[in-house]
Amino acid sequence: MVSVLQNVAVDCADAYGLALFWSGVTGRPLDPDSAPGDRETRVLLAEGPALYFNQVPEPKRDKNRLHLCLRPDTSRDQEVERLLALGATFLADHRDPDGTGWAVLADPEGNEFCVLRSASERAAAHP
């Protein structure tokens, strides 16, 4: 017997608003039953678990113990710029001069996530 991962839950102050941000990040739609003011909503990913946003009363206080890592279909640096334009905040730069590494960003509620190199950037580094 095994368990199947149903969703990745994110506690937040504004479930609908944060889900809209992550919908923009992933290019995937919100659950069609979602509406502004909902205390719970989901972003329906193409495959795998959904991103589930749950409104809670307490604010985020510390560094995430679990975070999402994104592999863009464009370059890592182009994706960082796109996500900053969507409302992300730049937290830490772990990009190296040789092109390896990642960038750490936060969503509008301060949840950290990483932007990795794209598959094509990784392949070009290791022909």
Task: Map the helices and strands.
Elements: E1 7-12, H1 15-26, E2 40-43, E3 50-55, E4 68-70, H2 76-86, E5 89-95, E6 101-106, E7 112-115, H3 119-125
Parallel strand pairs: 1-3, 4-7
Antiparallel strand pairs: 2-3, 5-6, 6-7
Description:
The chain is α/β, with parallel strands linked by helices and 127 residues long. It folds into 2 domains: 1-59, 2,3-Dihydroxybiphenyl 1,2-Dioxygenase, domain 1; 62-127, 2,3-Dihydroxybiphenyl 1,2-Dioxygenase, domain 1, CATH 3.10.180.10. Helices cover 24% and strands 28% of the residues. It has 3 helices and 7 strands, in the order βαβββαβββα. The protein has helices spanning 15-26, 76-86, 119-125, and strands at 7-12, 40-43, 50-55, 68-70, 89-95, 101-106, 112-115. The strands form 2 sheets. A 4-stranded mixed beta sheet has the order 4-7-6-5, with helices on one face. It has a 3-stranded mixed beta sheet with strand order 1-3-2, covered by helices on one side. The model has no long low-confidence stretch (mean pLDDT 94).
